[in-house]
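User: I'm putting together a teaching handout on how sequence relates to shape, and I'd like one worked example. Could you take DNA polymerase III delta N-terminal domain-containing protein from Angustibacter aerolatus, show the sequence you're using, and then write out its predicted structure as C-alpha cells right after it?

Assistant: Happy to. First the sequence, then the C-alpha cells directly below it.
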Amino acid sequence: MTPPRARSRAAAPAAPADPSGPLHLVTGPEDLLAERAVRAVVEAARSADPATQVVDVLPGGYAKGDLAVHTSPSLFGESKVVVLHGLEDASDELITDARALVAAPVPDVVLVLRHRSGQRGKGLLDAARAAGAGVHQCAAITNDGERASLRGAGACGGAGGASSPMPSAPSSRPSARTFASSRRRAARR
C-alpha cells in the first residue's frame, strides 16, 4: 500500500466570508477592499433589519466600557453593526473589551474587527478566528491595473461581491510608477 500523499503547504484560496454572520474579521492593508467588505456586512444586516444602526469605534479616545455601551440593547429594538477600526493601534482597554464581546456575543449585534497588520491585537484576532469569525482578507493591491480592475469589477475582498462597483475617475496626476520612470529617462539624457 502506498503512503498517502503529503498535503501541499500552499493555502487554497479561501471561500468568500458570509456577510450575514454575527462576527467578522477584516484583515490586511488594502483599505479599498476593507471598505467594501465592511459595506457588504452592513448591507447584509440592513437587508435583515432596515433599521440597523452602524456604530464606528475608533481606537483614539476609547475608554474602558465604551464597547458595552455601544452594544447595549436599543430602546427601539434595532439591530447594530459595531465596526472596530484600527485594532493595530488599539489600547489595551479596547482589546480587552473586544475579546470579552467575542467570547460572549450580544444578540442582535454584528461585530466587525478591522485590523490592517502587525502583532498588536493578535490575541483578539486569534480569539475571533476560533469563535468562527468570517474572515475577509484584504491583501495589498500592488499596481494600478489591479486597482482599476477592482474598481470596475466591484470586487469586495471576500465579502461575496455584494457591493456596487466604485466609479473609476480619470486622474490627471501620473502614477508614482510613471513619474519615477520619466525621472529615470530624464536622468539618462
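A couple of points you could highlight for students: The first strand starts at residue 23 and ends at 27. The chain has one domain: 23-188.
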